[in-house]
Fold this protein.
Amino acid sequence: MSRPVLDVESVQAFVSIAEFQSFTKAAEALGTTQGAISVKLKRLEERLGYKLIERTPRLVRLSAQGTVFINPAREFIAAHDRARAALSCDCRRFRLGIAQHVAGPEVPTLLSRLNERDPALTIEVRLESSHRLMEDFDKGELDAVIVRQEDHRRDGEDLGPEHFAWFAAPCFHQQEGKALRLAALAPCCGVRDIATHALTSAGIEWNEVFVGGGHAAVMAAVSAGLAVAAFSCRLAPPDVVDVSQRLGLPSLPSSRIVLHSTLTDQRSREALRTLAAAYREHRSARVSEVA
């Protein structure tokens, strides 16, 4: 019995639908129409003899067979892209900025996925505050940035919400009548501004006892029981707890994570699609674990 021959476009359509969980968004990402991508998926399912995507008016998700096939499908696409890139000596730089309050355990996955997709791509990564990265992006010093959305900007590709809360070590004790001991990344940090504004508006006295040193240093200070800090619920250290209710601290507004880029050539756009899909996929998995 002969094995079915797979074509790259059909497999790419399936992978894109799975990653975006949307026929419309997958079609937009691949620069085609919803009808065309549906035809490609149907052709792939007929060749394999399995239903890969379950689709209802409100939901698009992998079938049981699709869940089994998704990783081999990604490997198939990655192998195709590596083979194509091997014939090209067009080595390029990709300057990527990731905000410190956004970067998490998904970063190695993002970089690995980019490298698999385009081995000729030299990836340079910078971790800074969202504000600093946007300044450098606007000056043309970065090709793409993943940052917390700033209030005055509505451009960029929305990668999903980011929720914040107050975290401290389980042993942290706040003395009654004393100012709240606060840790923050730096005076220009956007999350710090949100946190201090919320405390001031609630009439809670606070005192910064640890400022700067990077995200890891702030997390270490909080884990050691030295202070309280505002963290993304997704990225809070595993050894700290949400103390918002226990300490009577004000709720913090949610934000959005946004991908900005001005790149327009096909290879760069493919890299950006890979980046966005990997971020959404890892973030979705992490949120499910936390829930």
Summary: The CA atoms of residues 166 and 245 lie 9 Å apart. The chain has a mean pLDDT of 82.
